[in-house]
């Protein structure tokens, strides 16, 4: 029945506690229990009280093999199972490799001195067993005390390890949170840079469109100038024939030109100072223009009369035309050169943007590689520390079996050492908290820097809007200038020069904007350097924490070495006392009297 029951439980995944108390289990039951422990991974508690497992050595050995292979059972009750010192030795061999059992009840068996020693020796390698009951087994009191001390040491060790793991988890969470925040900040920074690039591209497109519009306006103005020049040639030919009328007309034209120049200069100055005054002066200029147009009409009538005499001076007109053609060719060449310069500047700007993007991608790759290398080094260090810790624990377990007497003094010393260790740990925790506070302050400073950068970007956007508004104003001014050109055919040469000056000023402003953009790029590079410095400081803080953890481990090793020395001295004293007592008992008269009997 037991075989069938346990065979069914081998594949069960829900039963966590099994009670087989008082079922007279023997060799077959022990073998079935061994198979169950080898295959089942859910049972946490097993009660086998009032059975006869220890009588059958082969079955009990098979049961011990199953216990050795199991790493899920936590509570085992083997009371009243007639287990002798050999069964205890097999149990000890199983416990050396088991890493899950926490409570073992072996009361009311026949373990004896040898079995107690075997169990005591197994506790040197087993660090998970917290409770071991050995009452009613004829085990000496000194072995029971040693077992209790080993179990107390296991409990203390687990408490220290749990605290250290909690601290490590807290630090890892903080490190992960800092990494996430830095990644978010970096992504926000990249987004802002991308947005700035998009805005720059938009502004470049708008500027290119505006430049094209200005070029079209210039072409129209060139055509108008050509037509005006042809008309001027005709008028000059007519005026050359009529010398007498030419003097009068020249005086009138010079006066009109001077008046128009004065009016134009006043008009531009007033536009820069106040818009209202500009409007008033525009009315005056319109007035003057109407008068000039009337005079031009009179001059045209006189020119129509003088056209008959123009045939004689066609040769002179031809020469003048050639001069005009040469001047127009020069103007076209300058326009082509200006276009080529604009194209070259555009290409340089695009190349600089591409270089900046490539540098940003490379820096991101470097940052990721550095982070991966630091994580690998941290994992390697943790593995090394764990290996050292395991070796040291094995050495401590081998040394601690010698402490058997004078437990009170050792406990007092342990309490003092624990209090000192707790005080040191509290101080270190306070120091770590201060470091964390400093790290949070540095993080807040980085966030403030990012906010300032965003404000700078907003200011740059506002400046770009202002520049767009200024460009719209320039367009309006160009429209007004075109209207003035329609009304003032003779003054277009001077106005073209002024337009060229304005274009040069715009080019200078664009260059100033480019310089401002270069300054923003330098600021971005400085912020990236600050981010690198913050990451290096964070790595240094992590290294400091690792050094503190190593110092704590070294202090624990020193304290454990001191405890081992004290226990060795206590063991030597106990051996001396035992030898003295045995010698006293053998040499006393009571001992001789008992031997005679």
From TrEMBL:
InterPro entries: Centro_Cilium_Assembly, Leu-rich_rpt, LRR_dom_sf. Residues 154-181, 289-573 form a coiled coil. Keywords: Coiled coil, Cytoplasm, Cytoskeleton. It comes from the Eukaryota. It is found in: Cytoplasm, Cytoskeleton, Microtubule organizing center, Centrosome. The keyword Cytoplasm applies. The keyword Magnesium does not apply. One of its GO terms (cellular component) is centrosome. This is LRC45 protein. The gene is Lrrc45.
């Amino acid at each position: 029945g037991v075989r069938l029951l346990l065979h069914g439980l081998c594949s069960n995944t829900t039963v966590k506690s099994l009670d087989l108390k008082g079922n007279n289990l023997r060799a077959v039951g022990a073998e079935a229990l061994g198979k169950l422990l080898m295959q089942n991974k859910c049972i946490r508690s097993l009660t086998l009280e009032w059975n006869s497992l220890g009588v059958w050595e082969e079955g009990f050995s098979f049961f011990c093999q199953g216990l050795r292979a199991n790493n899920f059972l936590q509570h085992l009750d083997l009371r009243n199972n007639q287990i002798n010192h050999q069964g205890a030795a097999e149990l000890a061999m199983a416990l050396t490799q088991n890493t899950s059992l926490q409570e073992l009840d072996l009361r009311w068996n026949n373990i004896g001195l040898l079995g107690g020693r075997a169990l005591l020796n197994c506790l040197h390698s087993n660090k998970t067993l917290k409770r071991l009951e050995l009452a009613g087994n004829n085990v000496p009191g000194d072995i029971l005390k040693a077992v209790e001390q080993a179990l107390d040491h296991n409990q203390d060790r687990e408490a220290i390890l749990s605290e250290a793991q909690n601290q490590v988890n807290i630090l890892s969470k903080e490190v992960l949170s800092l990494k996430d925040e830095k990644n978010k900040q970096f992504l926000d920074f990249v987004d802002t840079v991308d947005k700035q690039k998009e805005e720059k591209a938009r502004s470049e497109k708008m500027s290119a469109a505006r430049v094209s519009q200005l070029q079209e306006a210039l072409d129209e103005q060139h055509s108008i100038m050509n037509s005006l020049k042809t008309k001027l040639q005709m008028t000059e030919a007519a005026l050359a024939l009529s010398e007498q009328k030419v003097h009068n007309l020249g005086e009138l034209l010079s006066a009109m030109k001077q008046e128009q120049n004065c009016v134009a200069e006043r008009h531009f100055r007033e536009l820069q100072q106040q818009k209202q005054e500009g409007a008033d002066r525009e009315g005056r200029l319109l007035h003057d223009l109407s008068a000039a147009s009337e005079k031009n009409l009179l001059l045209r009538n006189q020119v129509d009369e003088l056209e008959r005499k123009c045939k004689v001076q066609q040769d002179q007109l031809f020469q003048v035309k050639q001069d005009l053609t040469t001047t127009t060719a020069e103007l076209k060449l300058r326009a082509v050169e200006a276009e080529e310069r604009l194209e070259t500047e555009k290409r340089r700007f695009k190349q600089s943007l591409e270089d900046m993007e490539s540098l940003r991608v490379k820096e991101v790759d470097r940052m990721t590689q550095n982070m991966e290398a630091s994580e690998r080094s941290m994992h390697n260090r943790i593995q090394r520390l764990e290996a050292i810790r395991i070796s040291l624990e094995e050495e401590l377990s081998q040394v601690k079996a010698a402490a058997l007497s004078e437990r009170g003094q050792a406990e007092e010393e342990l309490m003092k050492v624990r209090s000192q260790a707790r005080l040191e740990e509290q101080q270190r925790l306070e120091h770590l908290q201060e470091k964390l506070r400093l790290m949070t302050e540095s993080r807040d400073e980085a966030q403030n820097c990012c906010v300032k950068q965003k404000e700078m970007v907003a200011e740059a956007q506002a400046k770009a809007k202002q520049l767009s508004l200024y460009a719209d104003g320039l367009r309006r001014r160009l429209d007004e200038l075109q209207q003035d050109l329609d009304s003032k055919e003779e003054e277009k040469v001077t106005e073209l020069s002024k337009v060229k000056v304005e274009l040069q000023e715009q080019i200078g402003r664009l260059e100033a904007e480019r310089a401002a953009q270069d300054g923003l790029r330098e600021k971005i590079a400085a912020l990236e350097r600050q981010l690198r410095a913050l990451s290096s400081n964070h790595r240094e803080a992590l290294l400091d924490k690792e050094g503190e953890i190593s110092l704590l481990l070294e202090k624990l090793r020193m304290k454990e070495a001191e405890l081992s020395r004290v226990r060795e001295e206590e063991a030597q004293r106990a051996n001396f006392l035992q030898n003295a007592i045995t010698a006293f008992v053998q040499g006393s008269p009571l001992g001789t009297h008992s031997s005679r009997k």
